[in-house]
Amino acid sequence: MISRASCGVTKRSLRRWCVSNVAKPSLVTRAVERLRRVWRYLRWRFKPALCFYLGNHLFMNWMPYGIRHWFLRRFCMVQIGPDSSIAMGCFVTGYHIEIGSNTVINRYTYLDGRVPLKIGNNVNISHYTLIQTLTHDPQNPDFVCLCKPVIIGDHAWIGARAIICPGVTVGEGAVVGAGAVVTRDVAPYTIVGGNPARYIKDRTRDLRYRSRYFPFFDTDIQ
After folding, report:
1. Is 14 in a helix, a strand, or coil?
2. Among 34, 90, 100, 181, which is most exposed with the fewest C-beta within 10 angstroms?
3. Model-level pTM?
4. Which one, of 65, 104, 131, lies nearest residue 209 by Cα?
5. Distance CA 102, CA 37 (A)
6. Does one domain contain both 94 and 189?
7. CA proximity to 98, closest of 82, 83, 118
8. Are residues 84 and 119 in the same domain?
9. b/e map of 191-201 (b: 16 or more CB within 10 Å)?
10. 209 shares its domain with 189
11. Do residues 149 and 61 both lie within one domain?
């Protein structure tokens, strides 16, 4: 029996031979794989970030209604119904925003659509309103993110500087007072206010108005 040592073959030389003779990916294969990784990054991370950056800092602040809404529909995937308006200065994020018809969203409103945010018909949302669908668990060691959809029913009215927390449903015809912090569902045709928001009184159910607000040059002059 002939040993490996007598043939001049050692473990080190055998390992070196195996490494040098194992098939390695060609330069073209490695280049293609790298391009694929770059494309995936551009498609899933860079493109959405760029679209929302341009939408929020250029189109939402400088462009008229038609161009602004076109960009939001085409590149930010915001579903906007007929005769609805999103005023200048609003901040939009996420691909899951659905807005009904004849809905008015006033200046400097924050719309968080990273998970579904559904706003009904003839809804009025006043200035500086904050609507969030994501939060964090303060008791979790890893500070995990909690995703909870928000629904705002038809003919609801959200007062200025109100905060709608994740997971809240604002019922049809409900009114949220200015500066209220809504942490739980609001029953239909009720008026709530305060921090946290509490029931104040009922609202009439005889609501026939249709909201339509397109002021000149995004001022309050109609």
Report:
1. helix
2. 34
3. 0.80
4. 104
5. 43
6. yes
7. 118
8. yes
9. bbbeeebeeee
10. yes
11. no
